[in-house]
């Protein structure tokens, strides 16, 4: 296992763990960020895991109190991290959580379902079947609170972004952009093709966990009817 | 308690940002000008974690329903109490029923109002900061509106002492005769120091030169999320698909149209555009006080110098804090 450090501004750095998106790199990133957050390092503010690296935000003032006068805070943090990372047993297998996301496809919830079908010479039902059959990995969370960057969608239902983005996409809408699929946790503007909506909240700021999904989760979409959607939505609130 | 009679252009409750939740995609938010926020709190005897009001360009109208100790720091957007000018960067005792308004604009862009004890707003995910798009934090997850009332928390002992030293019940307000020395808070010019970004070497030669030699104008679509700049277009030597990764405040990213964007307090947690540079933390407050329409010049600084100068600045802030504590012991 190899890593490289590089600065991200003057108060954070990146631990680079790969050059390409892969589930193996994803595992290592999960393991390392989990490990670092468990260390209770006084200078560690937070970690943001991404596809191929982990951003580590440090308290430069605290670090400056710990390191020597001739040492840069960045150098101190790199040296500390290097020692810590060496001690991680990368053989340990992190078990990933499996999460089902019920989706009511098409209709008012998925105004672009027909367009995605047409672009791929499929029927809307075939798009639903393919989308729901996928086994998806959450590589990272970004863009919006709880927004998952998901890998594993079939290229049979890929569709380019819309030429003019919508100004408002309702929360919990499921979309496709290129080879990616995702769910909008809060109302945001966006250019994705919208195929359905889930009754499940993905952003729960009052909860113990602010988001339903975390990097490393495996997810599956389950088609549900409009009635089931309404029922689940009522149960949520 | 204070009451908002007019909200101004954009007045929000902010703090030093929401730390620890960016991995869930929750943006940091927080003040744009951290220096002004920290000094404002310091002047009223608060710790720097207390929330302040960030007021943008056109200030609000605020009535104080009790005697308060306040300070105003950052850009000068013409603060007045009961129609009389008040100065920035110092503690001010304000008598109950007095009114804070903002008149003629002078310089900068954002003014911070700190109040002894701090505003009593809900903590969401360890922070007071308002996250407008997700409707959380601050006061009801939104910008302040007419009629909003904000309660105040218990004052610290230090706050009480500063307040007692200024109090003159026959006056509507009393300014302290001391202030935090000027050089920590205002840029000598608009040249903003920038460290090379992670993808700096992937940009073509002309772009690498242009960034540090041509002015860039802050476009009108700039806001708390980011400053869109217009000027010489920047381009990579050859096209390259980027993989999304974390970004931070001050990151200068370049979308395909070549016009750079500087990410600010309400930036998304991750981004996928190449990063040509990174504004050094020591100059982020300058940027925070730059208005749309103004021009900025960038100057290259080494990473090592950026870190060293930041520590020196924090050291100065620490010394100011200590001297206020000693003065009012």
Automatic annotation (TrEMBL), chain A:
Its organism's taxonomic lineage begins at: Bacteria, Bacillati, Bacillota, Bacilli, Bacillales
Q: For the Carboxyltransferase domain, which residue ranges apply?
A: 3-213
What keywords are annotated for this sequence in UniProt? ATP-binding, Hydrolase, Nucleotide-binding
* EC numbers for this chain: 3.5.2.9
State which gene encodes it.
pxpB
**NCBIfam families, A to Z:** 5-oxoprolinase subunit PxpB
Q: Which Gene Ontology MF annotations are present?
A: 5-oxoprolinase (ATP-hydrolyzing) activity
InterPro entries cross-referenced by the UniProt entry? CT_C_D (IPR003833), Cyclophilin-like_dom_sf (IPR029000), PxpB (IPR010016)
Q: Which species is listed as the source?
A: Cytobacillus stercorigallinarum
Instruction: One Pfam family, please name it.
Output: CT_C_D
Q: What is this protein called?
A: 5-oxoprolinase subunit PxpB
Looking at the record's lineage, which domain of life comes first? Bacteria
From TrEMBL, chain B:
| Keyword Signal in record | no
- Carboxyltransferase domain location, by residue? 23-316
An example of a Pfam family matching this protein is CT_A_B
Q: Where in this chain does the entry annotate a coiled-coil region?
A: none
Which keywords appear in this protein's UniProt record, sorted alphabetically? ATP-binding, Hydrolase, Nucleotide-binding
Return the protein name. Biotin-dependent carboxyltransferase family protein
């Amino acid at each position: 296992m190899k890593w490289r450090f590089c600065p991200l501004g003057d108060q954070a750095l990146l631990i680079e763990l790969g050059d390409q998106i892969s589930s193996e790199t994803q595992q290592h990133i999960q393991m390392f960020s989990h490990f670092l957050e468990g260390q209770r390092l006084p200078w560690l503010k937070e970690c943001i895991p991404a596809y191929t690296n982990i951003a580590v935000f440090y308290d430069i003032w605290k670090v400056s109190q710990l390191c020597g006068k001739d040492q840069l805070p960045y150098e101190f943090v790199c040296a500390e991290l290097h020692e810590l990372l060496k001690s991680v047993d990368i053989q340990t297998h992190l078990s990933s959580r499996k999460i089902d996301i019920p989706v009511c496809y098409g209709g008012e919830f998925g105004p672009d379902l027909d367009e995605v079908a047409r672009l791929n010479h499929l029927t809307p039902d075939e798009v639903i079947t393919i989308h729901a059959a996928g086994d998806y990995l959450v590589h990272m969370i970004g863009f919006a609170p709880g927004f998952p960057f998901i890998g594993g969608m079939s290229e049979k239902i890929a569709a380019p972004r819309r030429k003019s983005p919508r100004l408002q996409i309702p929360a919990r809408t499921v979309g496709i952009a290129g080879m990616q699929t995702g769910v909008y946790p809060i109302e945001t503007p966006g250019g994705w093709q919208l195929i359905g909506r889930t009754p499940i909240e993905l952003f729960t700021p009052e909860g113990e966990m602010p988001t339903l999904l975390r990097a490393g989760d495996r997810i599956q979409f389950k088609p549900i009817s409009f009635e089931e959607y309404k029922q689940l939505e009522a149960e949520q609130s | 308690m204070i009451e908002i009679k007019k909200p101004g252009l954009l007045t929000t409750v902010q703090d030093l940002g929401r730390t620890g939740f960016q991995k869930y995609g929750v943006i940091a938010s927080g003040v744009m000008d951290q220096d002004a926020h920290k000094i404002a709190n310091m002047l009223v005897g608060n710790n720097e974690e207390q929330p302040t009001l960030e007021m943008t360009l056109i200030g609000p109208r605020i009535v104080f329903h009790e005697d308060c100790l306040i300070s105003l720091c950052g850009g000068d957007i013409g603060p007045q109490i009961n129609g009389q000018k008040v100065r920035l960067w110092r503690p001010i005792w304000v008598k109950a029923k007095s009114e804070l308004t903002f008149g003629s604009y002078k310089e900068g862009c954002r003014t911070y109002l700190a109040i002894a004890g701090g505003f009593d707003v809900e903590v969401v995910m360890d922070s007071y900061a308002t996250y407008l798009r997700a409707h959380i934090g601050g006061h009801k997850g939104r910008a302040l509106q007419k009629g909003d009332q904000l309660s105040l928390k218990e004052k610290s002992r230090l706050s009480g002492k500063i307040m007692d030293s200024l109090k003159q019940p026959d006056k509507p307000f009393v300014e302290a005769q001391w202030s935090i020395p000027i050089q920590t808070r205002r840029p000598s010019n608009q040249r903003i120091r920038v460290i090379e970004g992670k993808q700096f070497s992937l940009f073509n030669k002309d772009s690498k030169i242009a960034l540090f030699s041509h002015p860039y104008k802050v476009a009108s679509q700039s806001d708390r999320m980011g400053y869109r700049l217009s000027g010489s277009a920047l381009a990579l030597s050859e096209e390259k698909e980027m993989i999304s990764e974390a970004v931070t405040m001050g990151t200068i990213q370049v979308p395909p149209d070549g016009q750079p964007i500087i990410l600010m307090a309400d930036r998304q947690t991750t981004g996928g555009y190449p990063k040509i540079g990174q504004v050094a933390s020591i100059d982020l407050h300058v940027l925070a006080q730059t208005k749309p329409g103004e021009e900025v010049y960038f100057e290259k600084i080494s990473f090592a110098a950026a870190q060293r100068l930041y520590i020196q600045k924090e050291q100065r802030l620490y010394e100011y804090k200590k001297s206020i504590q000693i003065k009012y012991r």
